[in-house]
Amino acid sequence: MKIFKFVQNILLGISLLILAFVPLWYAFVSDDIFKLQNTLYQISFICVTLVILIRPIADIFIHQKWLRKLVFLRKGFGVLSASIVVAFVIGNIIMPDSQYITSMFTKAYWSFENYVIFAHIGDITGFILLITSNNLSIVLFKKNWKRIQKLAYVYFYAGGFYEALALHNTFALVAISTVSLIIIIDIVFKEIRNQKKVL
Prior knowledge:
By secondary structure, the protein is mostly helical. It has one domain (2-198). The protein is built from 10 helices and no strands.
């Protein structure tokens, strides 16, 4: 378990660095950031894909205990994914002459044109997930905390649809299909197990 805690701490440390430096770089030194931005968004989407996949896979292969241990890393991957998205949102907000906040109250911000609505839903759910991924939020929200964390599905699908439809990202399409299939298999397996318990 020590190795998982070590990996988790690394993921959380990288997340803090991203939140500290990427917004400033994006806002004030953004001339050559396009490649970095694309790379970070890819990493973000891979991380949230892992977050969504790990638990149902562990539930399907219930006897593989090493998979259950991977569930511990969901927090680290989730925080890293959301930190990347939130870092660029912060960069947009602090950019000189930024009108990002006011644009949120326009029709264009929520438009289906170029599928931008999916990107913005991802931004908002990513922010909510990031600020509630801590022990204080667990205490404050109690039973509702798990409900809030289920926004991870909205976050995943919103980001996936944007990547697949707007950016023509094949990986996103494969990830959406794979995750959806695994979730359905998990639901079926759980139903079968529950039926066996009843009998």
